[in-house]
Amino acid sequence: MMDGVSVTLQGAETLARGLDALVARAGGDMTPAWADVGALLRAATDRRFDDLSADPDGNPWPPSIRALTEGHTLKDRGHLRDSITYAPGPDQVTQGSNRAYARIHQLGGVIKPKSGEYLRFTIGETVHMVRQVTMPARPYLGVTDADVAQAGDILAKWITRATA
Q1: What local confidence, expressed as pLDDT, does residue 132 receive?
Q2: Is the confidence at residue 50, as pLDDT, over 90?
Q3: Which of 131, 67, 70, 144 is nearest to 105 (CA)?
């Protein structure tokens, strides 16, 4: 489903301890609850794109060259943001993107030409030809402490309803 990059939020040990019996009593499949957590993570990721500011740890994204001249870092046409999905399962939710460039933005790295000697790209009216480009990491996927707390609340409410 998601080849580009993904982040998986699984039941944290602090949440998992003591809940296993309740989960089993509730039927064992928490896919609906994890779907709610996925929606929470998607909303948090959307906010990072809207704020044009920081990764999940609060570190500012390094500005891109394009952002310095004609736009925003990680928000040119919105394709990366729009590609983010989540897949809930019985005991986890995975969030990610299938865009080929998702991984390089999340993790950073070096881009080299696949064929030929140079990469060619245009910024504004200027055509650039370089042997390689080093992209800094600009993490947009991930969870904050607040996300983990909200996920815990979602899971606890689901288990409470399912076992009532």
Answers
A1: 92
A2: no
A3: 67
Cβ(16)–Cβ(156) below 8 Å: no
**CA-to-CA distance for 159 and 59, rounded, in angstroms?**
34
Compute the distance between CA of residue 80 and CA of residue 99 in angstroms, rounded to an integer: 7
**pLDDT above 50 for 147:** yes
Distance of CA 158 to the CA centre of its chain: 24
Other Cβ atoms closer than 10 A to 1: 9
pLDDT tops 80 at residue 95 = yes
* H-helix segments, the chain: 13-16, 20-25, 31-51, 65-70, 79-83, 102-107, 145-163
pTM for this structure?
0.74
> CB neighbours of 116 closer than 8 A, spacing ≥ 6?
none
**Tokens read off for 98:** 């299938």
* HSE-CB of 142 using CA atoms within 13 angstroms: 17
**Running DSSP on this structure, what letter comes out for residue 164?**
-
CA distance 109 to 133: 8
